[in-house]
Design brief:
single chain, Spore Coat Polysaccharide Biosynthesis Protein SpsA, Chain A, 2 domains, globular
């Protein structure tokens, strides 16, 4: 029998995501996946109630973070394939089926949907969206909306020490093991930022930087090149802001560089 979306379980980690979760779960329900497993990170809002309202199986990561949440969801899944989906992602109609077909046709070990980032009206959210839409990282493999075989995830796993950057670590280990990975250029999902104020952006920068620092520490000389990424991305962003005649984003990229490197130092030590 030909595989279909009914052979996919969606695993959705969430922590205090009540504002974003309904749209995510609605889109996954409409996609026709076999089951939705929501793994809650000790939310203090109504995230768990929302998940149950959409018929999802609800687990807890006991506050241990995203890598643990994803692994617990995968362990509970009963289908051959799993879609790792962040709570701030919305799948358009038929996007899951199209992504799965591309995954099968391309014989991928892991395939992520392309991301179209949107935000609220605040400066920092709009700046994050500008950065995501124009940055090279939009074509880097991650696990925000990604299809993999359940057993592959179980065997390769996630490094539970990461708060952010576990997707980079996974990408390196998948490639080292010989698996084909990629980001779709034809199937896109909507990526919605949970916040659009400075505190939200700062926390994103700090966590990303910490992930890069840990990657560098874990991978030795090979990982040192990662320490150049925040500076390279920030300088490129400044150049694009000027070229696009949008100087309002210069403050964002200065903060991006500074707080990423604060996070890097934490990850290194």
């Amino acid at each position: 029998m030909k595989p279909s979306v009914r052979d996919i379980t969606a695993v959705v980690p969430v922590r205090n995501g009540a504002g974003l979760l309904p749209a995510c779960l609605e889109s996954l329900t409409m996609s026709g996946v076999a089951e939705i497993i929501v793994v809650d990170g000790l939310s203090t809002d109504s995230s768990r109630d929302i998940a149950r309202r959409y018929g999802a199986t609800v687990l807890s990561d006991d506050g241990l973070g995203l890598p643990v949440a994803r692994l617990r969801g995968v362990e509970r899944a009963r289908t051959r394939w799993v879609a790792l989906v962040d709570a701030d992602v919305v799948f358009p109609s038929d996007a899951m089926a199209a992504l799965f077909q591309e995954y099968l046709d391309g014989r991928y070990g892991a395939l992520q949907a392309g991301l179209q980032s949107v935000s609220g009206p605040g400066y920092w959210g709009r700046a994050l969206s500008f950065h995501h839409r124009t940055g090279r990282s939009r074509n880097w493999f991650g696990v925000m909306a990604t299809l993999m075989e359940r057993d592959l995830i179980r065997n390769i796993g996630f490094d539970e020490k990461f708060r952010s950057g576990e997707d980079i670590d996974l990408r390196w280990r998948l490639r080292r093991a010989g698996y084909r990975i990629g980001v779709s250029r034809g199937v896109f999902v909507e990526h919605r930022f949970a916040g659009d104020d400075f505190a939200f952006a700062r926390d994103q920068f700090l966590m990303d930087g910490e992930g890069l620092g840990r990657m560098s520490r874990n991978h030795g000389l090979r990982g040192l090149i990662l320490l150049l990424l925040p500076m390279a991305a920030g300088i490129r962003g400044v150049g694009l802001s000027v070229a696009c005649r949008q100087p309002q984003w210069l403050l964002y990229f200065v903060a991006f560089i500074g707080y990423n490197y604060r996070g890097v130092l934490k990850g290194l030590v």
